[in-house]
């Protein structure tokens, strides 16, 4: 009897495992229905009278046990960034997506500040920030500082105090919005660390992003400082260095991409795959998605050089540049490499060519994946990326033909970051799933 009870206990554990993995399989076989808490004749008959059943189904039995074990290993072995449960994952995810959205708004606000020529209105900078002018006397003091700058002398001479207040408030809002982001990021970060929600790997990644955010303020002042220096030519308008502007924008893009990707990794540890066929389709998309994403990023950075050289105010025609397809002066500067970053004609031509290449590559991605077996979410993302690329090109052409109004220029900059967001989401969605998940997938999706 003791031997029987030990054997019954072992079979009961097998039954529970199989019931979790495949209930319908068990319900079709009567011998497993009699595992009650007390032994019965039916149970004895089910165990000892069906030895042939165990021989026939032994392989299936242990295969199902292996499946259960692999699923458990997958859940335990998956390297989660937040391990304190679904609620903690949701909280950290909301915080990271909120921080990414804040950086997005910072980029848009920075574009407005640049387009309204407000960036050089504040001629000094403190890391901790300062209160804005609150009295007429303080406003006059700030205005006098601005009058000593090259921009006032060459561009805004005779500006009224009211016009100065407008550009000052724009730049002040941009700087303080960045500092508020630092506080908004640091406080929840400290809270989640104290609660033990954040793993070491996630903590290191977020600490790096926080350091980049702190350095962004220094890069911003480094950029502004270049615009406060006297231009080399007496006929040139004062403007910030295009190299420093590109560095400032690139840093913002890196911070945004890091936050967005990390947020996706927190809330979606595994990509959405439901079959091996969909995983194979995602792998084919992945081979194209990464080069396309790099091209989108390079095109966006080239836009910083267009802005830094005020190249949008030249050749306001499309598709030709003036009366020609390619201007004659694109290689006038020496050494040759300077033309790609400082020559107005070359910089605008580069941006046009890169934008066209981006649209063509995304169109090719969409066309080549039409018949692939892929997850509906991946197909929808590819379609959205194609639509956003077409819209972004339309915004760029409209901005150029309209001589860069603030509204269209801002929309074009926001469109660049939106397109970058979509390609990041696409790459994250088609990333390679874990081996344990792949092993548990059926070959094809079962449809009703």
From TrEMBL:
<comment type="pathway">
    <text>Porphyrin-containing compound metabolism; heme A biosynthesis; heme A from heme O: step 1/1.</text>
</comment>
<keyword id="KW-0408">Iron</keyword>
<feature type="transmembrane region" description="Helical">
    <location>
        <begin position="176"/>
        <end position="194"/>
    </location>
</feature>
<feature type="transmembrane region" description="Helical">
    <location>
        <begin position="351"/>
        <end position="369"/>
    </location>
</feature>
<feature type="transmembrane region" description="Helical">
    <location>
        <begin position="244"/>
        <end position="267"/>
    </location>
</feature>
<dbReference type="Pfam" id="PF02628">
    <property type="entry name" value="COX15-CtaA"/>
</dbReference>
<feature type="transmembrane region" description="Helical">
    <location>
        <begin position="410"/>
        <end position="430"/>
    </location>
</feature>
<dbReference type="InterPro" id="IPR003780">
    <property type="entry name" value="COX15/CtaA_fam"/>
</dbReference>
<keyword id="KW-0472">Membrane</keyword>
<keyword id="KW-0350">Heme biosynthesis</keyword>
<keyword id="KW-0560">Oxidoreductase</keyword>
<feature type="transmembrane region" description="Helical">
    <location>
        <begin position="381"/>
        <end position="404"/>
    </location>
</feature>
<keyword id="KW-1133">Transmembrane helix</keyword>
<feature type="transmembrane region" description="Helical">
    <location>
        <begin position="92"/>
        <end position="112"/>
    </location>
</feature>
<dbReference type="InterPro" id="IPR023754">
    <property type="entry name" value="HemeA_Synthase_type2"/>
</dbReference>
<keyword id="KW-0812">Transmembrane</keyword>
<keyword id="KW-0479">Metal-binding</keyword>
<feature type="transmembrane region" description="Helical">
    <location>
        <begin position="288"/>
        <end position="308"/>
    </location>
</feature>
<protein>
    <recommendedName>
        <fullName>Cytochrome c oxidase assembly protein COX15</fullName>
    </recommendedName>
</protein>
<feature type="transmembrane region" description="Helical">
    <location>
        <begin position="206"/>
        <end position="224"/>
    </location>
</feature>
């Amino acid at each position: 009897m003791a031997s029987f009870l030990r054997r019954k206990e072992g079979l009961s554990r097998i039954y529970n495992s199989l019931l979790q993995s495949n209930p319908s399989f068990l319900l079709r076989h009567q011998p497993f229905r009699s595992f009650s808490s007390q032994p019965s004749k039916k149970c004895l008959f089910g165990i000892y009278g069906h030895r042939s059943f165990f021989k026939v189904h032994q392989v299936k039995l242990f295969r199902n046990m292996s499946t259960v074990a692999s699923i458990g290993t997958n859940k335990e072995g998956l390297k989660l960034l937040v391990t304190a449960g679904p609620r903690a994952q949701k909280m950290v995810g909301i915080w990271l997506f909120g921080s990414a959205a804040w950086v997005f708004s910072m980029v848009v606000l920075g574009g407005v500040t640049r387009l309204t020529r407000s960036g050089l209105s504040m001629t000094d900078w403190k890391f901790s920030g300062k209160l804005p002018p609150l009295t007429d006397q303080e406003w006059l003091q700030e205005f006098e500082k601005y009058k000593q700058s090259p921009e006032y002398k060459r561009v805004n001479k005779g500006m009224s105090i009211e016009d100065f207040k407008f550009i000052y408030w724009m730049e002040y809002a941009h700087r303080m919005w960045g500092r508020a982001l630092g506080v908004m990021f640091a406080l929840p970060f400290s809270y989640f660390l104290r609660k033990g929600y954040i793993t070491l790997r996630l903590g290191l990644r977020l600490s790096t992003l926080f350091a980049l955010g702190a350095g962004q303020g220094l890069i911003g002042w480094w950029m502004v400082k270049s615009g406060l220096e006297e231009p080399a030519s007496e006929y040139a308008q004062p403007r910030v260095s295009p190299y420093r502007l590109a560095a400032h924008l690139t840093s913002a893009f890196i911070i945004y991409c890091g936050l967005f990707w990390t947020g996706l990794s927190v809330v979606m540890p595994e990509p959405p795959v439901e079959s091996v066929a969909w995983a194979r389709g995602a792998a084919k998309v992945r081979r194209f998605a990464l080069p396309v994403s790099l091209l989108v990023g390079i095109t966006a950075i080239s836009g910083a050089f267009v802005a830094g050289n005020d190249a949008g105010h030249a050749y306001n025609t499309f598709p030709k540049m003036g009366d020609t397809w390619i201007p004659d002066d694109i290689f006038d500067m020496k050494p040759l490499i300077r033309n790609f970053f400082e020559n107005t004609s070359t910089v605008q031509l580069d941006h046009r060519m890169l934008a066209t290449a981006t649209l063509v590559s995304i169109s090719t991605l969409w066309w080549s994946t039409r018949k692939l077996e892929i997850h509906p979410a991946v197909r929808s993302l590819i379609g959205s990326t194609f639509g956003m690329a077409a819209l972004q090109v339309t915004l760029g052409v409209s901005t150029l033909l309209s001589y860069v109004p603030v509204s269209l220029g801002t929309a074009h900059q926001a469109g660049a970051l939106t397109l970058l967001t979509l390609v990041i989401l696409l790459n994250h969605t088609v990333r390679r799933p874990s081996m344990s998940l792949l092993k548990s997938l059926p070959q094809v999706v079962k449809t009703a």
